[in-house]
Write a structure and sequence with these properties.
Layout lengths: L1 E2 L12 E2 L11 H12 L22 H13 L16 H6 L29 H23 L2
Helix pairs in contact: 2-4
């Protein structure tokens, strides 16, 4: 986000830029900030951290991830379940900081011609997607709960 003045014919005395950066789990914040300062290469520009969370990743070797993969494969046999960095914001970092695995799983099949509507005007998904996705999430929870109940 760029900000600087409110008049079209006046050069602002100050300008601000906010940059949303997502660090990889193996990336150190201090090293990133040093590299960013080097890229900017201007001592008069101040870098200030506005909001930061511990970069983290949840393991894929647990019953929750296995349940997600199994249920997904059953519903969508040609699908690949792979971890990725989400481009959106979630609260999962709070859980990961407590050692709780968290996944941004969305069991919806969005046709390519409708993907532009995600977070756009008139955002929507089909009723069939809502029903199937809800059923898949329930099945995942039931599988994990059954495994947790077994001593």
């Amino acid at each position: 986000m760029l900000e600087g003045g409110n008049k079209i014919n006046v050069i602002p005395t100050e300008a601000h830029a906010q940059i949303d950066c997502r660090l990889r789990p193996d990336q150190e914040k201090a090293a990133f900030l040093t590299e960013l300062a080097g890229v900017i290469n201007d001592a008069s520009i101040r870098i200030e951290e506005v909001l930061a969370f511990t970069p983290a990743v949840s393991p894929t070797s647990n019953s929750l991830y296995q349940a997600i993969a199994d249920v997904t494969q059953r519903q969508f046999p040609r699908a690949n379940v792979v971890p990725l960095v989400l481009t959106a914001f979630t609260d999962s970092h709070f859980f990961r900081d407590l050692g709780i695995a968290s996944y941004g799983y969305t069991p919806f099949l969005i046709p390519a011609d409708q993907q532009g509507g995600v977070h756009g005007n008139n955002e929507r998904i089909s009723e069939a997607n809502v029903r199937r996705g809800t059923q898949m999430m329930l099945e995942i929870v039931e599988r994990v709960a059954r495994r947790a109940a077994v001593p």
